Amino acid sequence: MFYSAFEILKQGLTGNKGWKPVWRDPAPKPEYDVIIIGGGGHGLATAHYLAKTYGITNVAVLERGYLGGGNIGRNTTIVRCDYGQPGNSEFYSHSMKLWEGLSQDLNYNVMHSQRGMLQLCHSDEQVASYRKRANMINARGDEAQIIDRDTIRKRAPYIDLDNARFPVRGGLWQKRGGTARHDAVAWGYARSADSRGVDLIQNCAVTGFDITDGRVTGVQTTRGAIKAKKIGMAVAGRSSEVGAMAGLRLPIESHVLQAFVTEGIKPFIDYTISFGMGHFYINQSDKGGLVFGGDLDMYNSYAQRGNLPRVEQVAEAGMAMIPAIGKARQLRSWGGIMDMSMDGSPFIDKTHIDGLFFNGGWCYGGFKAAPASGAAFAHLIATGQHASFAAKFRLDRYKTGHLIDEGGHGASPKLH
Which domain holds residue 124? Predict the structure, then answer.
């Protein structure tokens, strides 16, 4: 259906009864060329690029619940490309370029807003570290700069620059950073993939893999057996669980990451801001709510909910940075299941089972990575070769020692 101002007016005057479904609700076919397990941002993006870039349209996306019901709809919507490690650096740079043309590519407004991102520095050492990172970002052409206290005061007068415990020394400013509408990203990719012939099959949980002589031939699901020549897993926090069905032991832990939103209030935060002395980040949505989050709950879980001690820690960090938010009432919270790799960086790779591909381990970077992840995964599935901008995301890097340790933000496994 073509969207326009005229169509909105027409539907409004006729009771909004003429809107058509945005995508089909097909029954599974007996066989496909490619099956993508996971109907979140990465799975839907993969289906879009398989169809659009490589002309592979005999594809099914299998989602155990509803499309976009996982992490793609449970995050704080931040988009940035300030990673410094080789491997991550070129990948997130490429993802930012895809973000900047995503609404045009999908013919769907994903509400990508490059309002800018400010990361606060609270010590001379941190300023020096961020200056090094700014130089890395600038060297690859993505633009970043260190700004001083006076500039921060002008741009964000609500920040407590003279906090007794965490005085602000400066900040790393990336003007191309910002936010996007998480649900719209899922809907845009789904709509595009469906329009190209991809089957989006909801309420279809994978219960097992059919593997013959070291090659995957299909999956068992709650809606019957489905054959496929190639299968890609993109199930985020369920990676270890689904991988175990195929006999894979993945270097991933699943953790809960909470996020929060307040009641709608008058706009006053123009940028995305992160606290340099605590894992806290905040932006203000188009509806006026303050959207913010912090660190993992630090225990393994498949539950999409968190615990109260982490709520307290996040609130403390927010109050230390912006005391005025203490007057805002929290509206709701939610939790996403994070697939935490051991070195804090993802995987887009073949597995030892012929025809089975894996995409996971995104830690904190899953939402901002969705466009490049889908493009890279589609390239790998279609050609059998790694995309140049994702060539280091190999499953064997722990054997070879080629870790991508981005600030040590990976999982912390407990030895028993």
Answer: 117-154+162-175
